[in-house]
Design a protein that fits this description.
The structure is a single chain. By secondary structure, the protein is of the alpha+beta class. The chain contains two helices and ten strands. The protein has two domains: about 45 residues, no CATH class; about 60 residues, CPE0013-like (CPE0013-like fold). Helices cover about 20% and strands about 35% of the residues. A hairpin with a 5-residue loop joins strand 5 and strand 6. The longest helix has 12 residues.
Length: about 120
C-alpha cells in the first residue's frame, strides 16, 4: 500500500489530504471537505493532468506574441510535447480571444487557444 499527501487545488480551502493506493487503485482519501477535493485527489494520483499556458509567435501584429492556453487539461506527461508544438507555432494577426492557434497539440486531441487579442499592425 502506498500513501501520498496532497494539498487540494479544487477550491480556496487548500485541504491537506491523504490518499492511499494499492496497485494503482485508490483505496481511501481523507482530509477533504468537499466532493471536488476527493475527485481531485483520486485523479491526481491515478491520471494527473494540467492546463498549459504560454505564448505563441504572431506575425504582422501589434505584439510579437499572444498569450494562449490549452482548451482543456492534458496528461501531465505530455506537457513537454505540447510546449514544443507551442514554441514551433506561428500565427498571423489579427488574433482574437478564443481563436484556435493549434488544432491538436502533441496529438492530445486538445486545441491551444488565444487568451488575448493581437490586432494587426496595419
Amino acid at each position: 500500500m502506498e500513501t501520498r499527501e496532497l494539498i487540494c487545488i479544487g477550491c480556496p480551502m487548500g485541504c491537506q489530504m491523504t490518499v492511499q493506493t494499492d496497485g494503482g487503485r485508490v483505496v481511501s482519501v481523507s482530509g477533504y471537505t468537499c466532493p471536488r477535493g476527493k475527485a481531485y485527489a483520486e485523479k491526481e494520483v491515478t491520471n494527473p493532468t494540467r492546463i498549459v499556458t504560454s505564448t505563441v509567435k504572431v506575425v504582422g501584429g501589434e505584439k510579437e506574441r499572444v498569450s494562449c492556453k490549452t482548451a482543456q487539461d492534458i496528461p501531465k506527461g505530455k506537457i513537454a510535447e505540447v510546449m514544443a508544438d507551442i514554441n514551433a507555432a506561428c500565427v498571423s494577426a489579427p488574433v482574437r480571444i478564443g481563436d484556435v492557434l493549434i488544432e491538436n497539440a502533441a496529438g492530445t486531441g486538445v486545441a491551444v487557444i488565444a487568451t488575448a487579442n493581437a490586432p494587426s499592425s496595419q
